Please model this.
Amino acid sequence: MVFRQIIYNALLAGFIAGLLLSVAQVLIIDPIIFAAESYEVEHDHGGHDHASETWAPQDGGERTAFTVIANISAGIGFAAVLIAVMSQLQAMGLTTLSVAKGILWGLGGYAAMYVAPSIGLPPEIPGSEAAALESRQLWWVMAVVGVGAGLLALVFGSIKIKIAGVVAIALPYIIGAPKHVGALFSHPAPDAVIALTALHERFLIVTGVGNLIFWIALGLVSGWAVSRFKVDSAGDQLE
Model:
């Protein structure tokens, strides 16, 4: 698939997947975030000056608009990578794409980009305590790259490459994700901690559902797009 076709179809797939994620976020994810933020506002942060915080969109329409833009932009980026890899593997004769196989690719993306890092670093709601941001970011990248590359190796690689893929998948968890020492919530009110804990449990479920919808849509549309084109090993369109 030529570069132009990759971009056009990435725009389509990213828009659809990002819009679906945004709908899920507005309906089932944001209410939990807003509820958790209400406890965060009530929490005395030891003299922290909220006026010094960086700019953030206002609650309501502005915040929703920026969320939709961010989700669609992320969807386009992920779709571009997904379609490029799909089309190259198809050009090499390693696979023939279809809508059904696109869904499998979407599930693979979900496993690599959401499930894998969430095993070590579950999604967080406002007010939760966590390890240092830099160490969490580093481990997140390690988990995503390791599991993503490992899954590709297991599906398309030779025996030796499959073994390397297993190692790549296991390595982030052998090293271990950075952990916060202490309670997940430091709010001084016991009732608030109970409420935040319940919100956190619900948040894990709804973010998993939202991301699953996103990745299935991304894989489905990407698989459909790639199945419509035949390319040679150099990525040039044949028809």
Observations:
- Residues 1-46+58-130+190-239 form one domain.
- The chain has six helices and no strands.
- Confidence is low (pLDDT under 50) at residues 43-52, 231-239.
- The chain has two domains: 1-46+58-130+190-239, 131-179.
